[in-house]
Write a structure and sequence with these properties.
This protein is an alpha/beta fold. It folds into two domains: about 130 residues, no CATH class; about 190 residues, Spore Coat Polysaccharide Biosynthesis Protein SpsA, Chain A. It has twelve helices and twelve strands. It has a seven-stranded mixed beta sheet, sandwiched between helices.
């Protein structure tokens, strides 16, 4: 075998080892109890309503008239004994504010506030959430998105877990809600890219600088939130959750990340265009580097498409050799073996990851298509960050720097 062939085989072994490492990490996550489940009874049940820590659910809503009513009904059905709900209408042009006010009139736990201007240098959602917390009076703040659906007892379980682990910030990875073809085909893999960067066990290590949060379900102790200036500290970030977690951890707060697939489900986008633009924005805001985005694209091509492409090439070469009466070379045999190992490890890791997120595993049948679509989404993120230096979101174009921050 040539030196080039040996180098190729060694590099391929390295790719396979990454997939095997991911399988091991998945097993460790289960062993370490990182999957929150809804217990039939929680310690919160033993508390008298007046003894439970107060909690305010803060929801920033912009043009959410289609989903806000269902979201509020779902939240108000929770059993948490000391809960209030604050809806911050962020410059909506539809009936969002009217719906929130209707709920406020019929349920004393609900309040509605309206914002009519966005200060310069702020991302809209961060400003709305920060504005809402100025009037919220509670021991804990739960930041939630309108597209979240909570299972019964979800809030009680999350507060209990935060108090049990003595942490000041708790966030959950949600389950993907039912949706159409493109949602099932692409969103799990998009989430997989985020997990590659932020899914390490070090995420819950107080000694590690690695931090993560999911703004769709983010529980924050009020006093700690004020201590680190909350969303004001990340007002220029395209997405607020991961930068806020990083800031909180650097400031000495204790944080915990877990899977909430049995507690929270989310349907983020309902069509291909929404998925494309929404996840491109998320990648800009979470990866915040053209190098990181390019590395993600390279990993998808080498780590996910390689066994399919190599399998076809090897099959053609073996058939050609046999047709010509030639012996099968040892390098082709080794490559074929690595190709099968690669494909098996990749499918096992993906099968388990899809299950961890409550995603349909049958959608792994068109995995190569999913990879191609996500590569395109990442390329869009790279273009926004490297070339256009601008990102469109909700009828607004934000000028950004190469770290994905709004340019003031």
């Amino acid at each position: 075998m040539s030196v080039a062939t040996i180098i190729l085989l060694v590099a391929w072994c390295g790719v396979c080892s990454v997939w095997i490492g991911l399988i091991i990490a998945q097993a460790r996550a289960r062993r370490d109890g990182l999957f929150l489940e809804v217990a039939e009874q929680t310690h919160m049940d033993a508390l008298q309503p007046e003894a439970a820590p107060s909690l305010c659910v803060v929801i920033a809503a912009r043009n959410e008239s289609d989903g806000l009513a269902a979201c509020l009904r779902n939240v108000l059905a929770q059993d948490y004994p000391a809960m209030s709900v604050l809806v911050v209408d962020d410059r909506s042009e539809d009936d969002t504010l009217a719906i929130a006010q209707q709920f406020a009139q019929s349920d004393s736990r609900v309040r509605a506030e309206h914002i009519d201007t966005l200060p310069r240098g702020w991302m809209g959602k961060s400003h709305a959430l920060w504005h809402g917390t100025r009037s919220a009076r509670a021991d804990w703040l739960l930041f939630m998105d309108v597209d979240c659906t909570l299972r019964p007892r979800a809030i009680s379980r999350a507060v209990e877990e935060a108090r049990h682990r003595n942490v000041q910030v708790l966030t959950l990875w949600p389950r993907q809600a039912a949706g159409g073809f493109w949602e099932h085909a692409t969103i799990p893999l998009c989430g997989g890219i985020i997990a590659l960067w932020f899914g390490s066990q070090r995420i819950n290590d107080p000694g590690s600088t690695l931090a993560f949060a999911n703004g769709q379900f983010l529980l924050f102790e009020r006093q700690a939130y004020e201590q680190v200036r909350g969303h004001e500290a990340v007002r220029r970030a395209i997405i607020e959750d991961i930068p806020l977690a990083e800031h909180a951890k650097r400031s000495g707060l204790s944080c915990w990340v877990a899977s909430g697939r049995d507690l929270v489900s989310v349907r983020m986008y309902e069509n291909y265009r929404g998925i494309r633009d929404g996840w491109a924005r998320i990648f800009v805001g979470s990866l915040r580097s053209v190098v990181n985005i390019a590395a993600s694209i390279a990993w998808l091509i080498v780590g996910s498409l390689l066994p399919y492409i190599a399998g076809i090439v090897l099959a053609v070469r073996v058939c050609s050799a046999r047709a010509g009466g030639e012996d099968i070379r040892i390098d082709l045999v080794l490559m074929a073996a690595l190709c099968m190992i690669h494909l098996a490890a990749m499918m096992l890791a993906s099968y388990r990851f899809w299950g961890m997120g409550g995603c349909r595993r049958i959608d792994l049948l068109w995995y190569p298509l999913s990879v191609c679509v996500v590569v395109r989404i990442l390329a869009r993120s790279w273009w926004w960050l490297m070339i256009s230096r601008s990102i469109p979101w909700r009828d607004t174009h934000y000028a950004i720097d190469r770290r994905g921050r709004i340019v003031e």
